[in-house]
UniProtKB/TrEMBL annotation:
Pfam families: PDH_C, PDH_N. SUPFAM superfamilies: 6-phosphogluconate dehydrogenase C-terminal domain-like, ACT-like, NAD(P)-binding Rossmann-fold domains. Its EC number is 1.3.1.12. It is an enzyme of class 1 (oxidoreductase). The keyword NAD applies. This is Prephenate dehydrogenase. It catalyses: prephenate + NAD(+) = 3-(4-hydroxyphenyl)pyruvate + CO2 + NADH. Keywords: Amino-acid biosynthesis, Aromatic amino acid biosynthesis, NAD, Oxidoreductase, Tyrosine biosynthesis. GO terms for molecular function: prephenate dehydrogenase (NAD+) activity. Residues 2-290 form the Prephenate/arogenate dehydrogenase domain. Residues 295-365 form the ACT domain.
Length: 365
């Protein structure tokens, strides 16, 4: 029976665990994490068979090891694994968002003849943690593979193990990978966070400030809600690429600034037309899988226990939440509660349940 160890039971580790369980119910999955609460959640929801905080010990018996912590943890894990006597046919892989530093960190392991295949699913979310994982998170998304010196057989074995993710495999070199994702993922996260921080400062004296933002600001900045630890590790592991891409992006901003200063309408129209043409040709089908969580917004009165009453109702009906977020609650005024579900059926059942209990539905999926 194959034993798979997943180190890091967050959004990605848990989504892979759920997908592996779906495609291979016979595989034993051992989940490992530093957070005991994540371990008990994973065990309770049965997408792992065993849990441990002792990664090194679990690794000794593994046929497949999936490293799914922040990139800085993945590189440290690779150093730890190089100190151990692993099973000779073990396949070690990772899900980290950078590949040059990860492949470099894997070298000592590879020099011992251990198979390492770099991996990176190009799907995810700004949500994180053990409860956010879902088996269909990666459906139709690209999944980068950096096989390095790994054999074709090992690559095929890994792809077979992860078949239920329904990803589109793409083999790249570490350099190609970091340049591509630098531009398509790392730079946008920096830009989104910078825009939120600058707006917060600029509107600090406005009573409603950021809350007045419409859809545009919200969609451009959604990813600013991503996990700070994870993104710090990513940028520290792709610095040269991202710095150069940030410089090119700053130059683009300088060009548009000059056009506005000069009142150059033609330059501005050309600027927006070029972007629109490119963006319009990227339909949703070309953008890969976008986070597919199911949000429900309800009005919530400013009353002690009001939120608990909602969560209790959902729990009694066995409807699990992926996330809960109070968007706004002001004294003596209704607030808005955002309830996020992992699938359409749970979302729809919650809408019916809460509407029947006279909660006002502000927006559903
Ligand atoms: N979030 C996303 O959309 C995507 C993330 N990635 C990459 O996947 C990896 C995991 O990301 P997420 O699952 O989103 O993060 P997450 O924050 O949801 O989960 C990370 C998990 O690693 C655990 N962890 C942290 N330090 C640890 C340590 N020293 N030992 C063991 N466990 C530790 C945390 O407790 C947490 O459970 C990262 O390397 C990230 O760059 C890749 C594709 C998409
Ligand atoms: O939330 C989003 O849209 C993302 O961009 C998710 C994401 C985050 C990190 C990655 O390495 C890949 C995908």
């Amino acid at each position: 029976m194959t034993q798979v160890v997943i180190h890091g039971l967050g959004l990605i580790g848990c989504s892979l665990a759920r997908a592996i369980k779906l495609g291979h119910p016979d595989v034993t999955i051992v989940g490992s994490d530093v957070q005991p609460a994540s371990l008990s959640y994973a065990k309770q929801h049965q997408f792992v068979d065993e849990v441990t905080t002792d990664f090194s010990k679990a690794a000794l018996d593994a046929e497949v090891i999936i490293l799914a912590g922040p990139v800085s943890v993945i590189t440290a894990d690779l150093a730890t694994l190089a100190q151990l006597t692993l099973k000779p046919n073990v396949i070690v892989t990772d899900v980290g968002s950078t590949k040059q530093t990860v492949m470099a960190a894997a070298q000592p392991l590879q020099q011992q003849g251990i198979t390492f295949i770099g991996g990176h699913p190009m799907a995810g979310s700004h949500k994180s943690g053990v409860a956010a994982g879902r088996a269909d998170l990666f459906e139709n998304a690209f999944y980068f593979l950096v096989p390095g010196v790994a054999s074709k057989t090992a690559v095929a074995q890994l792809q077979e193990l992860l078949a239920a993710t329904k990803v589109k495999w793409l083999t790249v070199t570490p350099r190609q990978h970091d340049r591509l994702v630098g531009q398509l993922s790392h730079l946008p996260h920096v830009v989104a966070a910078a825009l939120v921080n600058q707006t917060q400062l600029a509107l600090a004296d406005s009573p409603m400030g950021l809350r007045l933002a419409a859809g545009g600001f919200k969609s451009v900045t959604r990813i600013a809600s991503s996990d700070p630890t994870m993104w710090t590790a990513i940028l520290l592991n792709n610095p040269t690429v991202v710095v150069s891409q940030l410089q090119a992006f700053s130059a683009e901003l300088a060009t548009v600034t000059t056009a506005i200063e000069a009142g150059d309408g033609q330059a501005l129209t050309e600027f927006f037309t070029a972007a629109k043409t490119t963006r319009d040709h990227l339909g949703p089908e070309h953008l890969g899988s976008l986070p597919n969580f199911y949000d429900l917004f309800i009005n919530i009165p400013d009353r002690a226990g009001a939120i608990a009453a909602v969560t209790q109702r959902l729990a009694q009906a066995n409807l699990s939440l992926v996330n809960i977020h109070i968007l706004e609650i002001r004294e003596e005024v209704d607030g808005v509660l955002q309830l996020t579900f992992g699938n359409a059926a749970t979302h729809d059942a919650a809408v019916a349940l809460l509407a029947a209990a006279d909660y006002q539905i502000v927006r559903k999926r």
